[in-house]
Design brief:
This protein is α+β, with helices and mostly antiparallel strands and 242 residues long. The chain has 3 helices and 8 strands. The termini are far apart.
Length: 242
């Protein structure tokens, strides 16, 4: 067996042997340094190439950020200034609105007071002595005006006994309202003759009578005939144009 092994070593079938030369350590270190330097140079070149063609560098980006930050600060200052102005104008508008509402209320109050004074003046003027030659029952004043509700009218009537009456007058009042509707003339009696209610009056010197009635929809009052009756007979009658 030893012979077979010896013979195998001497024949062609023996294992191959490769003889390699070993580089010295300094040479290998130099080659490694050159390789690393080349890799670093390639990295720097790649970065510069990318920075040149891919966008601005850090300083340009920082300058752009500072510029945009400055614009944001300016816009913020403008916004705050405009907000302050808007708040001031809003406060001023509220003050002026309150002042206008107050003035409107004062005007409405003055108009109401003026209306009341005119009515009082008309009332006291109606209490003046009757014109010469007029005796007995008189219709001194009559007013008709729209009320708050739709188609509702309010009337105000003042009747008086002239001279020095010795007894009270007792009677009723009837009104005949002439109105136009749909191009035709119509008549409305107040109170309704078929109603048991009546506008009763009882006074010695004078009496004021006030109330409301409703006109038909779309009606326009033209005139009113006011009658004062006693025992079914007309004691005074007067027509008032509207």
């Amino acid at each position: 067996m030893k012979w077979n092994l010896f013979r195998r070593k001497l024949t062609v079938s023996a294992p191959r042997m490769i003889v390699r030369g070993r580089l010295p350590g300094p040479v290998r270190a130099l080659l490694g340094f050159v390789f690393l330097a080349g890799a670093a140079a390639a990295g720097v070149a790649t970065y510069e190439y990318g920075r040149q063609f891919g966008g601005p560098d850090r300083r340009e980006l920082q300058a752009e950020v500072e510029r945009l930050s400055s614009q944001v600060r300016e816009l913020t200052a403008d916004r705050d200034r405009f907000a302050a102005l808007a708040t001031a104008y809003e406060a001023q508008l509220k003050v002026e609105t309150v002042a206008c509402e107050t003035l409107g209320q004062q005007v409405s109050s003055l108009e109401s007071e003026s209306t009341r004074l005119r009515e009082d003046l008309a009332f006291f003027e109606s209490l003046l002595p009757a014109p010469a030659g007029k005796k007995g029952l008189l219709i001194r004043s009559f007013r008709l005006q729209p009320e708050g509700a739709p188609h509702e009218m309010r009337y105000k009537l003042l009747v008086q006994q002239s001279g020095k009456p010795e007894r009270d007058f007792v009677g009723t009042v009837q009104m005949q309202i002439n109105f136009a509707q749909g191009g035709r003339s119509w008549v409305l009696n107040v109170p309704d003759p078929n109603s048991p209610q009546s506008l009763a009056v009882a006074f010695r010197h004078y009496q004021r009578l006030e109330g409301t009635f409703a006109l038909p929809e779309g009606a326009v009052a033209r005139s009113v005939v006011v009658k004062v009756l006693a025992n079914g007979e007309t004691q005074a009658q007067q027509t008032f144009a509207l």
